[in-house]
Specification:
The protein has 701 residues and is of the alpha+beta class. The protein contains 33 helices and ten strands. α5 packs antiparallel against α6 and α9 runs antiparallel to α10.
């Protein structure tokens, strides 16, 4: 768990301590010392997403610390003018400044950024090259592979580790396979683990649309070599490597692969078993004994993995899934069983789900709506009528998508949902309208009907405390491309009284129509004093105790340590909201065994008026036990957060990593289920390793 986290922190240390300035071209007159006031000004400019005069001056300061902070802020701000500032920072005499500029190019993206980043592969500083490797992972362009190959031959283990992780995120990097195979035998445990993770992703065979198996795109000869190496790694002493090998050998069809994978179904490590079970789920796979035994496990994470796998096998798995829907003791298991059954037998799923539409669990009632989109029967209509009157917005929000193919007119079929008091439900209607305009059955009539629905939704949402509905309307309009009918909503957005809607509309105007609009980018009402307070708060180690409640059990607890260097604002805002009780009573909303768990903040009710959080992407890696902020779009997190339950390095640089679990990760965090509740989060000054105080004696409920 700690190896690659340690590597990420080592890389961050290299950046922070990189060489001092030794000269260079004359700079503009600027402050000479990194005072708290100036650092707070940089933080404020970044939070407002504005490159102001103070930020420009700090980027030209003789003080390397100020220049590092300024370069990082400009990369996060992005925009048309950011490249000009960062191109100068890319040749700075201080390696830490150059590293921040390199990562900023990745955040900004585009061919010009990639061209500038390519020149930095000649840099001699390991910290800079590490940043270049992490930045390359944020590009979709295949040209990035050329520069990645160079870094895969670098002798520095931190650079190699980052380069291997980037290779695992590239599209069909055929030339990278040979060095990855070589690095999978590296003496450095960090490099070896990163290379194996990359090979696992490149070697995996996934179930695509219509049950067709898809590869990562590497050449067949290379794919054979990768999977042969993964077979060797299934017997590794390291359970992390066994889990990666099992995940990479998905859809094992050769005798050698099946022979290597079968023992992993009874592996002593549960995450290895989870990965193996999921790999045995592919079209027309044999159910017995591989999945039929694992579905009877007492560990619910293993049962969930079995049910998910069965949903990819095909109709032969129907009876087992129906049995789980009826008999499973846990609602989250029954919910996944409905989803899986719907993939392979929608009519049977609708019939079976009918029995759960009146249970107490809103999650399970919401799952009952899933089969409705594929089955046009009287039973489906009966279920839909029952669910549209459900008291839970979570349930009602499932209906627009479920009814997409059942009715001709959205205006008529979804009239009550278009006027629903819950923004969550109306946002779901807007998303459905967008899919309807883009669907295979789309025609001029359905487009007109969808647009009329969007008109009504925009008007209905003007008094909402959060602009989630208008965001979804803009997203739906984007599907029309460069069309005047979609431009109408962009123009409405540019004139909207909500700053966040204006910003979103301006971005859409530039990306879809190639035009620019001047919009104030400030997205916060914090003042200079508050930013100074944030920095003071972040100057000391901060941690939290998270207490979890599950019915019938005593509370469980784990501690987290905030990453105050890379995400000071996110950490401070999380702490503020925790102390205000925002998270008290919230359920763990989603668990994907071996991957992540998530806690969602509802957008309805007493939590509806919260401000979105700004992203603070960094070079920290999403290894196991990392906390990140979930979001619906750039700078649009409402405070929902997730914890990684295994290596999720494909998230690096795309989400804000703001803390990590210190105590009770294996004993509490990895054992949580959907429905477990956050009882309270206690913030304190410390690093998370302090002994936990005993819980008050109580009887299990």
């Amino acid at each position: 768990m700690t190896i690659l986290l340690g590597t990420a922190l080592l890389g961050a240390t290299l950046l922070a301590a990189a060489g001092a300035e030794s000269g260079g071209k004359p700079r503009k007159k600027a402050p000479k010392k990194a005072t708290p006031k100036l650092l707070a000004a940089i933080l404020g400019a970044e939070d407002r997403r504005v490159v102001d005069e103070t930020l420009e001056a700090c980027l030209a300061s003789p003080d390397a610390e100020l220049r590092r902070h300024a370069a990082r802020a400009i990369g996060r701000i992005g925009g048309a003018g950011a490249l000009g500032h960062l191109s100068a920072a890319a040749t700075d005499t201080d390696a830490g400044v150059r590293a921040q500029a390199a990562f900023g190019f990745g955040l900004i993206g585009g061919q010009e950024s990639l061209d500038l980043l390519a020149t930095m592969t000649e840099d001699k500083d390991p910290g800079v090259l590490l940043a270049v490797a992490r930045a390359l992972a944020l590009f979709d362009e295949s040209d990035a592979n050329t520069w990645l190959l160079k870094l895969l031959e670098n002798p520095d283990p931190d650079v190699l580790t980052a380069a291997c992780l980037t290779a695992g995120r590239m599209n069909a990097p055929n030339d990278a396979v040979t060095p990855l195979l070589r690095h999978s035998n590296s003496k450095s445990p960090e490099v070896r683990l990163a290379a194996i993770w990359a090979l696992s992703r490149l070697g995996a065979v996934r179930t695509g649309a219509f049950g067709v198996l898809e590869t990562s795109g590497v050449e067949p000869r290379m794919l054979t070599q990768i999977r042969a190496r993964l077979v060797e790694l299934t017997t590794s002493r390291d359970p992390r490597i066994r889990a990666m090998a099992a995940a990479g050998l998905s859809a094992p069809t050769t005798r050698t692969e099946v022979k290597a994978m079968t023992p992993r179904l009874t592996d002593p490590d549960r995450m290895v078993r989870v990965a193996t079970i999921r790999s045995f789920g592919y079209p027309n796979a044999k159910i017995f004994p591989y999945l039929s035994n694992s579905i009877e496990e007492s560990d619910q994470h293993l049962v969930w993995a079995s049910i998910e796998a069965l949903g990819r096998v095909g109709p032969s798995a129907s009876d087992l899934l129906v049995d789980r829907i009826i008999k499973a003791p846990s609602n989250w298991i029954r919910e996944e069983a409905i989803r899986s059954l719907n993939r392979i037998n929608a009519p049977l799923a609708a019939k079976t789900a009918n029995g759960v539409t009146q249970v107490d669990s809103a999650r399970l009632r919401a799952a009952a709506a899933i089969p409705l989109s594929a089955v046009d029967t009287e039973l489906s209509r009966e279920i839909a009528e029952r669910l549209r009157k459900d008291p839970s917005p979570q349930v009602r929000a499932m209906l627009p998508g479920a009814l997409l193919d059942l009715e001709d007119s959205m205006q008529e079929a979804l009239a009550d949902l278009i006027a629903d008091p819950s923004p969550r439900v109306r946002a779901a209607v807007a998303a459905t309208a967008g899919r309807r305009m883009w669907g295979i059955d789309s025609n001029e009539e359905t487009v007109r009907d969808a647009l009329a629905t969007l008109d009504r939704l925009w008007k209905e949402s003007l008094d909402d405390p959060l602009p989630r509905v208008r965001f979804e309307v803009l997203n739906a309009a984007r599907r029309l491309g460069k069309d005047d009918r979609g431009r109408k909503y962009v123009d409405l957005g540019l004139a909207d009284p909500d700053r966040r809607v204006r910003i979103r509309a301006a971005k859409q105007l530039e990306e879809v129509f190639g035009e620019t609009a001047t919009v104030e980018m400030a997205a916060t009402d914090l003042d200079a004093k508050t930013y100074r307070e944030i920095l003071r708060w972040a100057s000391e180690p901060r941690a939290a105790v998270v207490q979890i409640r599950r019915e019938g059990f005593r509370p469980g607890r784990f501690t987290i340590r905030f990453d105050l260097e890379h995400a000071p604002i996110t950490s401070w805002q999380f702490a503020q909201r925790a102390e205000q009780g925002l998270y008290d009573g919230l359920e763990v909303s989603r668990v994907i065994p071996g991957e992540l768990l998530q806690v969602d903040v509802p957008i309805d009710g007493d939590r509806a008026g919260i401000e979105p959080l700004r992203d603070e992407p960094s070079m920290l890696s999403f290894g196991p036990a990392r906390l990140g902020m979930a979001r619906s779009g750039p700078d649009e997190s409402l405070g929902s957060w997730f914890i990684t339950l295994g290596p999720q390095w494909h998230l690096d640089g795309r989400y804000t990593a703001f803390a990590h679990v210190v105590q009770n990760y294996l004993g509490v965090t990895t054992l949580m289920y959907p429905g477990d509740r956050i009882e309270k989060i206690e913030i304190y000054q410390g690093d998370g390793s302090e002994p936990l105080k005993p819980l008050p004696a109580e009887k299990a409920k």
